[in-house]
């Protein structure tokens, strides 16, 4: 896995350097710095699912697969920077979010106009650049044209699906039913699919040149389930995560009022009084430590936390059973097992 | 030209309908409506430059060229919706801008949270969807793979260049020198290149499979110059345009404080007192009719308006002279002449 991470990071570094040289015209330097920051962290999960899909379907270690897999990090970076603008988030991985960086540059430099508007505008453009680059890096990976042609419809679909999923999320926050089912659907479309299922499918199709029935079964049986469990873990970390590890303030999802599966379970199981408290506190931008503790207590007391932990375990078990049935190579089976566990038991 | 417009609009309609059916899940209906609105107007200049590049280099009337050319309208629509978010513009072609439409939907529906934030978020996602679709429609135009492969680097370059150009524009507004030269550079990178030069280059390369030296000369000699004249016309319309035709309030660019070539020429030629007045009024969001008249008067009195009109004439003349030297077909020469005149003498 270390080798994979190294290869992915090398491919990203080389690509970005070609597109926006660090030594180039200095007026673009803030774009480059922000891109580097966005691309510097992360678990590289999406490239790993893609790579092990490729290996699982018989692909060998050629440089192109690392480049193709790494391009998924550019898509993810694009989604993060736009997400932070949309949510007006100040922090990303413990550091100022991209639009706040651009805003700070504006204010520090004493430029004309609104620093906030400059920051958001620059971040929207940076996100667009990363989105454009992700497609370019993917197509120019050096993999055989027939492999890329076979996988391109999956790639196209994934990108539109991500945007539509994020739109569903906006709707769900604005007027959703906030049931477990509706939260699950949003989680799947907004994140689960493009974090696990689609990267895996891309790797499989790149290697095989087609989507064989067993691949579809693996993408659903393993990919979808790991994707949901990944999001359930995200829900839990958003409430109970350690700020030192997540890089976000404690209980940040509560302050943002995110309508997650965890919150839906809590509301469904809470007494009328507790449910009213949750509805009252959730989304309060000034929610303090005491408010966070109150909500955590209710989420724990209703059994929702344990229920979500159990669901993660169930989904993981089903995913590994599906993986067991798939005719992937032994090495890929072992790596995909580790990845599923890592994705669902992570601390950040 | 009517046929070209009809073909472009048919291709756009079919593509969007396949991606987001009007009869599909109704929760996406507002995205579709906003996309239709963005795609319904416009002069179709970019597809026309692409098409006539293709014909000029010997391409014949195949359906694929209309699809490829039409895809440029999706890129333009993406840029418009993001631009309006970045500028916080209320109107686009006389109708509410996309983010204001989404905001109105939120407020009319009595949903939770901030309508403004919902509107901007939805518009960012819509812009991303249109950006993704533009690449997809381009690649799936049905033109021969070798043509598309030859043109792809130009296509990739154009998209990154547009985003970098828009970033330069943000910088220029925030702390630029506001000289004619700096405004010209921004105009070229932000709009001129992807409005004229690059669409033309795409058409030429698609047809010829390579960039022959005469094509480069035509792209620079004709394309760059028409692009600059196109932007100069834009600068003039932004100050003196008829709201009934532009769909924007009178003097909108003045209220937004845009640092255009026209403004740069005015500042360079104005008396110290007039220059101070311009600097004072430019960018005042509450600028009223009287303020607009004051600025118009100064822009006229300094001779900057006439100077820009003269420049448009000069650039157009040089462009047509360059076109005259290019070995394009007679039909293409005639159409590119008409297009250059239309792009630089337009009222909207």
TrEMBL record, chains A, B:
Keywords: Magnesium, Metal-binding, Transferase. InterPro entries: Isoprenoid_synthase_dom_sf, Polyprenyl_synt, Polyprenyl_synt_CS. Gene3D superfamilies: Farnesyl Diphosphate Synthase (1.10.600.10). It comes from the Bacteria. One of its GO terms (biological process) is isoprenoid biosynthetic process. It holds the Pfam family polyprenyl_synt. Its cofactor is Mg(2+). One of its GO terms (molecular function) is metal ion binding. PANTHER family: GERANYLGERANYL PYROPHOSPHATE SYNTHASE (PTHR12001), SHORT CHAIN ISOPRENYL DIPHOSPHATE SYNTHASE (PTHR12001:SF85). Belongs to the FPP/GGPP synthase family. This is Polyprenyl synthetase family protein.
